Amino acid sequence: MQEPIAIPERFAHLPLPAADRGVYWPGFMPFLGVHLACFAALWTGARPVDWIVCGVLYFLRTFGVMAGYHRYFSHRAFKTSRVFQFVLAFLAETSGQKGVLWWAARHRHHHKFSDLPWDVHSPLQRGFWHSHVGWIAELNTEGTDREVIQDLTRYPELVWLDRHWMFPPLLAGTAVWYAFGWSGLVVGFFLSTVLTWHATFLVNSLAHVVGKRRFATGDTSRNHWLIAVVTLGEGWHNNHHHYMSSARQGFYWWEIDVTYYVLRLLALFGVVWDLRPVPPAVIAEGRARDAACTTRSGG
Predict the structure, then answer these.
(1) Please, what is the average pLDDT of the chain?
(2) In sequence order, which ranges of the chain are alpha helices (DSSP H)?
């Protein structure tokens, strides 16, 4: 088991969080309910079109979370119009991962305290399963620290969307049910929702447990190609924690980053722009570290 990370001096004055933080059942029960709803496929069956809808919604909503919630709203890694900003927020919210302001605030908090006692989803601090799903049930995950998202709260449409975050998934689910019936709702919508959730959670949990550490970050973040495939590029987590401002998380051509490829395509049409690159010095540092690892392993 890995040793705890020493608390930096700048955080030494902060009180440590309570070991037992309580459970917020009103928020956790719908989460469990969506998982259970997937078993309704035993009665509704699943047609080929339902699986197609499931795959399309998984891709679209995972992209919305990774490009929108993560790279844009949390890290401002590229620029876009106010209209497409709203589209990204709405698309991400159809995944049922709460509101855009809550998500961005929570993620900025994660980077500030990554793998320290105040990080609510650190496998180092609370164990793998708590980092993957257990933290969602805690009472202290409900609030939104607006001090860290003042760049976002100046947009009233984002504030409204965050307050009414259940509207996008309810609208999406209703549309799928209307177009594809009950089996479409269960397999196309509910199952793709669960898969999108767990793809996102993998970055919180497994991407801090398995994989390689190219950069010596002050946390346990790691790179793993399979997590990157499942999450459309977020599996290059050690890269991201080393230089979080880049729109690209697969720093090298062989590191698959589908979210970045889609952003590049959108940039060709002027939908997004100013995609923040990885600085040459960071690229060179990574190559040097890879070469050093190869040399030590006798490659």
Answers:
(1) 92
(2) 25-37, 41-44, 48-63, 82-93, 100-112, 123-126, 128-132, 150-153, 156-163, 167-183, 192-204, 225-230, 237-242, 258-268, 280-296
Chain length of the chain: 299
Q: Is residue 5 part of a domain?
A: no
Mean of the pLDDT values across residues 233-243? 97
The answer to whether the pTM exceeds 0.70 is: yes
Flag whether 3 is in a domain.
no
Residue 125 structure tokens: 């601090």
**Residue 284 included in any domain:** yes
**Predicted pLDDT at 91:** 98
Neighbours of 95 (CB within 10 A): 26
Over the stretch 68-93, which tens digit does the pLDDT of each residue have?
A: 999 999 999 999 999 999 999 999 99
What dihedral do alpha carbons 218, 134, 172, 236 form, nearest 10°?
A: 20
Q: How many domains are there within the chain?
A: 1
Domain annotation covers residue 1: no
Provide the residue range defining the domain that includes 30: 21-296
* pLDDT over 70 at 296, yes or no: no
